[in-house]
Design goal:
11 strands, Recoverin, domain 1, 17 helices, EC 1.5.5.2, 55% helix, Proline_DH_dom, disordered N terminus, alpha/beta, flavoprotein, 3 domains, globular
Length: 438
């Protein structure tokens, strides 16, 4: 297992800023201004979410009828109120922060996050000392979840504990670092939030079942970073159910985020322990301007890598990690969703070096319809699984999406000229060779 780069001391130092990032903010929770690279949904009511689910179901049916082993992409913000996703993300981040606090108290502040192992005995004593729970009660926690059997608990075990604790009636209290007082972890969650969670999970379950029935793989798109902890968590829960025997549900990781590698490696390790197929779509990211605007307004560190080169490095680092996982376990799959020729070349080279054959269909490629055909067609002709991303829905919703893509890809005309030059070059080659139509 490769070590993760985010150490506890670094994370604890930025706790206040991270909490600002996941704080509910009406101006951004239902906000889609300054987003040029993706379609965003504006919440109106639960009935509208049901309508979105029906559209996604029709999209799955269309994918099944148009290609073998096809994909359909969905957005969780279309299935739930975005403000709820922000609130849920905040809860997840607070729970992680509590783990880091316990790790720091046990002298592990310099370790990579996945290498932190809390000693169960010391953890139980700390929980009792803080007044969170008695030692007898915490022992029951760990016994019921079969955790800490080796005397230690890591971050993935800690997250399992969160699942069980949030299902009990007694509120889970954790310390507030600023006030020193205990506060309910789920203080912002009421009956309405519980209903929203159940409805959203039901909608995702309906979509996943339809995808499995139709032989379609379901990609859950990544969205703004302040929604993403909740979206990823819900996607992983769906993967646990549907990815037991094959890769049906694909999570999406945005490599322009500084924490992308940590997110990928953590979920890969979870899939190893639990025995399900890890499957991902890797993208660079589509919400940069909005992310930076929100960070500046709310006073937390910009979550985006500082340069395009750093994003490229992150993309290749995450991709290489998943390719290594495919080589060693064959229970992982990746869609390389990129228009970058260097990234495609990097993938092909590493597949060859690692002995991953295109026929295994563990690695596939995706580009937007009408873009980068000089990448798509040669890949398909060489036997690689390659897909075109086609916007699906009412015309009045699809056209704004396409205009945003045109804005995002300002170099589109230069690429179009390159495609034209390559096609003309190929026509001349075939004319000279006397095999124009072969």
């Amino acid at each position: 297992l490769s070590s993760r780069t985010s150490a506890a001391d670094k994370e604890m130092g930025g706790t206040e800023q991270r909490e600002k990032q996941y704080r509910a903010h009406q101006g951004f929770g239902d906000h889609h201004g300054r987003v040029t690279g993706a379609h965003t949904y504006f919440y109106t009511d639960e009935a509208k979410c049901d309508q979105h689910m029906e559209t996604f179901l029709r999209c799955i049916d269309a994918s099944s009828g148009s290609s073998e082993d096809g994909f359909s992409a969905i957005k969780v913000t279309a299935l739930a109120r975005p403000q709820f996703l922000v609130q849920f993300s905040e809860v997840l981040v607070k729970w992680r922060r509590f783990f880091l606090q316990m790790a720091a108290e046990q002298g592990q502040a310099g370790r990579a996050v996945l290498e932190m192992k809390l000693e169960v005995e010391k953890l139980q004593e700390a929980l009792a000392r803080l007044g969170i729970v008695t030692k007898a009660e915490s022992q029951e926690w760990f016994m019921s979840e079969s955790l800490g059997t080796g005397g230690t608990v890591d971050l993935l075990d800690w997250n399992r504990l969160f699942d069980s604790r949030t299902r009990i009636s007694k509120p889970l209290l954790i310390p507030n670092r600023q006030t020193g007082q205990l506060e309910p972890l789920l203080s912002r969650f009421g009956e309405e939030e519980d209903l929203q969670m159940k409805r959203m999970l039901q909608r995702m379950d309906v979509l996943a079942k339809r995808a499995m029935e139709k032989g379609v793989r379901l990609m859950v798109d990544a969205e703004q970073s302040y929604f993403q902890p909740a979206i990823s968590r819900l996607t992983v829960e769906t993967q646990r159910c549907f990815n037991r025997n094959q890769a049906i549900i694909f999570n999406t990781y945005q490599c322009y985020l500084k924490e992308a590698y940590d997110n990928v490696t953590g979920d890969v390790e979870l899939s190893r322990r639990e025995g399900w197929h890890f499957s991902t779509k890797l993208v660079r990211g589509a919400y940069m301007e909005q992310e930076r605007e929100r960070a500046a307004q709310m006073g937390y560190e910009d979550p985006i890598n500082p340069t395009y080169e750093k994003t490229n490095e992150m993309y290749h680092r995450c991709l290489d990690y998943v390719l290594e996982e495919i080589k060693h376990r064959r229970k992982a799959s990746v869609m390389v969703a990129s228009h970058n020729e260097d990234t495609v070349k990097f993938t092909l080279r590493r597949m060859m070096e690692l002995g991953i054959h295109p026929s295994e269909k563990k690695v596939c490629f995706g580009q937007l319809l009408g873009m980068c055909d000089q990448i798509t067609f040669p890949l398909g002709q060489a036997g690689f699984p390659v897909y075109k991303y086609v916007p699906y829905g009412p015309v009045n919703e699809v056209l704004p999406y396409l205009s945003r893509r045109a804005q995002e890809n300002r170099g589109f005309m230069q690429r179009a000229n390159r495609e034209r030059d390559l096609l003309w070059k190929e026509v001349k080659r075939r004319l000279l060779a006397g095999n124009l139509f072969s």
